[in-house]
Amino acid sequence: MQDIGLMSLRLDDRREHRLHVWDPSCGGDGEQPVHDHPYEFTSTIIAGEVTNTQYEERNAGDEYVRFRFSPGAEGERRSDAVRLSSTATIFNEGNQYHQLAHELHASWQQPGTVTAIRCQWVETPQLTVCVRDEGSWRSGQRREATRDEIKAFTAKALEWF
Question: What are phi and psi of 26, to 5 degrees?
Fold first, then answer.
């Protein structure tokens, strides 16, 4: 479980394939952090809808606080300001999208959306998370899902079937 409204299940020992069930209403203030990953991935939408927004540094963009840290050292992050512009694309059941490790993005899902992702791990010296203001930092650390969370997320996902 991640506190951005994501419940995931690893489908293999290499952490290459995962099943995700999303409910952004369980993720706090609703604004997803702009971030990159230590892996490239392809996401397939099994049910529901995903809006994936990609971000690029642009002088005319909106201002964000950018945090950078080494993988596994989230607590030792440093910050600066960055201006980002965005392009959003909507994906529905059966669609796929690919995200490179270094590309900044944020995604929003309809409650109960189910996706399958295939990760390809890459050597990443630092990770990036961008938020509107410094006080809105949220950890990306995973935790065990509670029985009630599993029931709630599963019920939302079943509404798509």
Answer: -95, 5
Question: Which residue, 24, 159, 161, 43, is CA-closest to 96?
Answer: 43
How, if at all, do strands 114-121 and 39-47 pair? Answer: antiparallel
Please, what are the domains in the chain? 6-138 (2.60.120)
Measured between alpha carbons, how far is 97 from 134 in angstroms, rounded to an integer? 30
- Residue 11's alpha-carbon distances to 19, 67, 101, in angstroms, are 7, 30, 20
Distance CA 159, CA 161 (A): 6
Residue 17 C-alpha from the chain's centroid: 15
142 vs 88: CA distance, rounded Å: 26
Digit-coded pLDDT (tens) for 29-78: 667 889 999 999 999 999 999 999 999 999 999 999 999 999 888 889 99
Rounded distance between C-alpha atoms, residue 69 and residue 86, angstroms:
23
Backbone φ and ψ for 52, nearest 5 degrees, come out as: -105, 125
CB-based contacts of 110, cutoff 8 Å, min separation 6: 22, 48, 49, 50
